[in-house]
Amino acid sequence: MANIYDAPDIDTSMALRQVGATQESFVAFQSIRTLPGSASSTFSFGAHASRPASGLTGDNYFETDRGWLYYYSGTAWLYESGVNVGTNATRAAITVTANDNGALFFTNDQNKWWRVEGGAWVDKSVSFDLTTSLKINGTKVIGARGAAVADVASADATDLATAITLVNEIKAQLNTLLARTRAATGHGLIA
């Protein structure tokens, strides 16, 4: 079941943090680490099913079918970095354990990020089913729907007095719309 965050405010910095985590994974992959005392570690690659049962401490194995990099801790292969992309059915078919903690999967049919936590898949995507507002860089840009702004009620101008009344009414309605789009408690669409 997808997580729906019904928080008072949703800040888009969550999406930026998810992008940052993905970038960190690629940086970690590019600088494959060697654990202390393992200067002779090896790097090999192949399908998940072909991964050796064990290795030397610090050995690295890249799973070509999953796009994940593992290192051997001395007792187990542990996820280090990488991202897999595919359908939700493909993700659900991948059996994971605590050794896969941190592994990332993007479901391209759902546009969701998944991460292995505690040996299980966790939906890390934010649903934009907002209750009060959406913030971008801490500034509210969309808020709860405000009350309706009444239509201009005056009839067409047939004389100068009616024309002045009509212009004043239009000006008041325009100022109301502008105030609501600027207000931090309203939509905050413009400064």
How are the SSEs placed, and which strands pair?
Blueprint: E1 9-11, H1 13-30, E2 43-46, E3 60-63, E4 68-72, E5 77-86, H2 88-93, E6 104-107, E7 112-117, E8 120-123, E9 133-136, E10 139-143, H3 160-182
Parallel strand pairs: 1-9, 2-3, 5-6
Antiparallel strand pairs: 3-4, 4-5, 6-7, 7-8, 9-10
Key features of this structure:
rod-shaped; about 25% helix; 3-stranded mixed sheet
Give a summary of the structure in a few sentences.
The chain has 191 residues and is α/β, with parallel strands linked by helices. The protein is 25% helix and 26% strand.
Shape: rod-shaped
User: Low-confidence parts lasting 5 or more residues at pLDDT below 50?
Assistant: 29-38
Strand content: 25-35%
Overall structural class, as computed from helix and strand content, comes to alpha/beta
Mean pLDDT: 77
Along the chain, the helix and strand elements come as EHEEEEHEEEEEH
Portion of residues in helices? 10-25%
Strand order of the largest sheet: 2-3-4-5-6-7-8
Quaternary structure annotation: single chain
Number of domain units: 2
Q: How would you characterize the largest beta sheet?
A: 7 strands, mixed
Number of helices: 3
| Total beta strands | 10
Radius of gyration: 27 Å
Distance between the termini: 38 Å
